[in-house]
Amino acid sequence: MEPPDRRGAAVTASATSPRDLAHPAREEIRLEAVLHALSDPMRLRVVRELAAADGEVACSGIELPVTKSTTTHHFRVLRESGVIRQTYRGTAKMNALREDALGALFPGLLDAVLAAADAQTARLGAP
Amino acid sequence: MEPPDRRGAAVTASATSPRDLAHPAREEIRLEAVLHALSDPMRLRVVRELAAADGEVACSGIELPVTKSTTTHHFRVLRESGVIRQTYRGTAKMNALREDALGALFPGLLDAVLAAADAQTARLGAP
After folding, report:
1. Helical ranges in B1-127 per DSSP H
2. CATH number of the domain at A26-119, please?
3. Global pTM?
4. What's the complex ipTM?
5. Could B30 and A120 be called an inter-chain contact, meaning their C-beta atoms sit closer than 8 Å?
6. Cβ contacts of B32 on chain A, cutoff 8 Å
7. Residues 55-114 of B with CB under 8 A from A
């Protein structure tokens, strides 16, 4: 696990039931936290898969070559930074990029990161 | 100090004298390392000042509200990730953004991050 970091994005959204996951409101999302979330290869891979899916994807639909607890950690960092929204649907935890929020706060940023990831994969092979 | 991280950008450029600082070659620069370098508020501040200066700036010309050793650490992370080039000129260590390398590898990324930082500052006040 990573230590708590100082990059912002306080997570204050009230959780009204144990199944409500805390998300930063749009105005609480911080650039530094978003960049930190995107700076890990596994988290960047999740973001690319969600962008390609263009909709909600279950956690079980994204396979990472790390342990389940590390996977859960990565999803949590993405959620708490404001990059993804996680919602329970029955027993599945569904994930989607917060493209509207990120696009409103930081126009072009997510697209530039996704394009850069594609360019790197094209240059170096598998991500 | 931060722990060594796994985000790439091996620094293999040979140092031919003690005053030559190691930089990754362009093809060694990794997106994850660049995003990590940009994810710290102090390092983002340095990058914004260098972008605004549009040329070389001495370390002494960039004041950060942290200790000298922390400042040195931040400049090193920026250099080793490929975001900046550091060059000794006499007794001064000069810094410049590697805009050509970053623009060639990741078109639009640096501009998107700088615009996002400007937008956040406009929204929240001081960076």
Report:
1. 31-38, 41-53, 68-81, 99-105, 109-124
2. 1.10.10.10
3. 0.85
4. 0.84
5. yes
6. 39-41, 44
7. 105-109, 111-113
